[in-house]
Amino acid sequence: MEPLPPGFRRLTRGPVELIVDDDLWPALSGLPLLEADGMDRVFTSARAGASGRASTALLEIPGADERLVLRRLRHGGLLGPLLRGAFLGLKRPIRELSVTARLRAAGAPVPRPALVAGRHLLGPLWSAVVATVFEPGSVDALAFLQSAPEPARLLQACEAIGLAVRRFHDAGGRHGDLHVKNVLVRETGSSIEALVIDLDKARVTPGLAPGERMSQLMRLFRSLLKRDVVSKVGLRGCARFFGAYCGDDRLLRQALWSRIDREMRRVALHSWHYPTGAPPRSR
Questions:
Q1: Cα gap 96→175, rounded to integer Å
Q2: 40 or 283, which is more confident?
Q3: 121-154, pLDDT tens digit by residue?
Q4: pLDDT in tens, 63-97
Q5: Which domains does the chain have, with CATH numbers?
Q6: What distance in Å separates the CA atoms of residue 6 and residue 3, rounded to the nearest whole number?
Q7: CA of residue 169 relative to chain centroid, distance
Q8: What are the angstrom distances between the C-alpha of 176 and each of 20, 24, 198, 240?
Q9: Alpha carbon distance 180, 198 (integer Å)
Q10: Count of CB atoms within 10 A of residue 227's CB?
């Protein structure tokens, strides 16, 4: 049985297994989360969330100020249409819950994990829902870029994202799919902060090497190309992000920059199916 992070409890009733934050359970206990069709009913009554491979919903917690973002787990890749939401047990979603809790405790800018709800389907197969506490006032970075922010706000956001990803990596975070929609941007008055979300397949790897860091940064960069928003960021935005990520660490900057030609050749190899090619860069 997969171990739980500190502060979570496991509840089982019939075909349903629920792993939930102890502090949130009193407010959530009135919902039908332990009933066989309970999560389907909760999803139906909740407000639809962001679009993507997996459906999401925004759930109001009765009598509480906080809300939850619910996400159904779905397979991607070639087997996605066949397997859809059927998984071999609940190891994967519980691991995501544990990784998120561990990274948050280490100071990484990630959402607060709330629960995993699983339902036994047939044999070893389960369906699962993962929930985190909703981050009010936030939008994903793609939506932020598409809102055409003025240059000063754009550069401030690029810096905030660079700082957030650096903190995520310094805490040992290795994201499974770091792309522009898996970063949230939140403006509060004159300040902007960023968070890293959707930690499915993420791992905690203390002492993340420069090569792995650069691979993650370039995955984020390629997502800008794939969604045709790299021109909105521009060279100044990329430079502001990279400068914020490296900070005063000259050795890290040199180690990352020494890999840029190799990474840009990789971008060129795959960019034939992107809406636009890679922008020019300067040293």
A1: 11
A2: 40
A3: 999 999 999 999 999 999 999 999 999 999 999 9
A4: 788 899 999 998 765 555 566 678 989 999 999 99
A5: 10-133 (3.30.200), 138-273 (1.10.510.10)
A6: 9
A7: 13
A8: 23, 27, 9, 24
A9: 11
A10: 17
Strands laid side by side in the 183-188 sheet: 138-140, 183-188, 191-196
CA atoms within 13 Å, Cβ hemisphere of 178: 25
Q: Where are the alpha helices (DSSP H) in the chain?
A: 25-28, 38-45, 80-83, 91-105, 141-146, 151-170, 210-226, 230-246, 250-257, 260-270
What gap in Å lies between CA 46 and CA 59, rounded to an integer?
Answer: 5
Best CA proximity match to 222, nearest among 173, 257, 263: 263
User: Within a 10 A sphere around the Cβ of 186, how many other Cβ atoms?
Assistant: 17
Listed residue (236, 246, 153, 140) closest to 192, CA to CA: 153
Contact call for residues 47 and 57 (beta carbons, < 8 A): yes
What is the DSSP pairing of strand 138-140 with strand 183-188?
Answer: antiparallel
**Is the Cβ–Cβ distance between 153 and 185 less than 8 Å?**
no
Residue 167: burial class (beta carbons within 10 Å; 0-12, 13-18, 19+) = buried
73, 84, 245 from 76: Cα distances, Å: 10, 8, 30
| Contact status, residue 218 vs residue 138, Cβ threshold 8 Å | no
**What does the block give as tokens for 17?**
């297994």
